[in-house]
Design goal:
The chain is built from four helices and five strands, in the order βααβββαβα. It has 138 residues and is of the alpha+beta class. It has a single domain, classed as 3-Layer(aba) Sandwich (Aminopeptidase). A hairpin with a 4-residue loop joins β3 and β4. The structure holds coenzyme A. The site of coenzyme A (COA) has 19 residues, from β4, α3 and α4.
Length: 138
C-alpha cells in the first residue's frame, strides 16, 4: 500500500494545489491557515503521499480527546480508483489508533453524495445524527 508521511514545509503549496484540484477548498476556509492549524499541535496532522516527487494524495486527521476526525481526503484526479484514497484513510486511521482513538466521525458535505460509496467501501456507515455548527469567530 502507498506510504503516507507527515506534511513538511516544502509540501504546503502542492497540498493546497491538490485540494483545489479536488474541489475541497472553499472561500471561507483559508487552506494555508488550515494547514498551519493542523500542524500546530500534537492532536492533528496532515499525511501526504508522493510519487515521482509530486504530492498525489492527502488526508488531515485529528482528535479532540474523544473521537477522531478526517478532513481533506484528496487524491489527484488523474490517479483515482487505484486505492490511494483507501490508503490515505487507512494511514489516518493508523495515526489516530496509535493515539488511542477507537472511533472516527466523518462529516461529508451533503452535496458530495458521490463519495458516500467510497466511505462505505471502507466500512463507514451513515449515523443517525445530524450535525449542528456555529461560527464563534468572524
Ligand atoms: C473520494 C476520493 C478520495 C476517493 O479516492 P480514490 O483513490 O479514487 O479511492 P480508492 O481507489 O481508494 O477507492 C476505495 C474504494 O472506494 C470505492 N470508490 C472510490 N470512489 C468511489 C465513488 N465515487 N463512488 C463509489 N465508490 C467509490 C472504490 O471502488 C474502492 O472500492 P474497493 O476497495 O471495494 O475496490 C477521491 O475521489 C477524491 O479525491 N475525491 C475528491 C475529494 C473528496 O470529495 N474527498 C472527500 C471529502 S469528504
Amino acid at each position: 500500500m502507498t506510504a503516507f508521511r507527515e506534511i513538511e514545509d516544502q509540501d504546503v503549496e502542492a497540498v493546497v494545489e491538490l485540494w483545489s484540484a479536488c474541489g475541497l477548498t472553499r472561500p471561507w476556509n483559508d487552506p494555508y491557515k488550515d494547514i498551519s492549524f493542523a500542524r500546530a499541535g500534537h492532536e492533528s496532522t496532515i499525511l501526504v503521499a508522493e510519487r515521482g516527487g509530486r504530492i498525489i494524495a492527502s488526508v488531515m486527521a485529528g482528535h479532540d480527546g474523544h473521537r477522531g476526525m478526517l478532513y481533506y481526503v484528496a487524491v489527484d484526479p488523474a490517479l483515482r480508483r487505484e486505492g490511494l484514497g483507501k490508503a490515505a484513510v487507512r494511514a489516518a486511521e493508523d495515526w489516530l489508533g496509535e493515539r488511542g482513538v477507537w472511533k472516527i466521525n466523518l462529516l461529508v458535505r451533503s452535496e458530495n453524495d458521490a463519495v458516500r460509496g467510497f466511505y462505505e467501501a471502507l466500512g463507514y456507515e451513515v449515523s443517525p445524527v445530524f450535525c449542528m455548527a456555529r461560527k464563534i469567530a468572524p
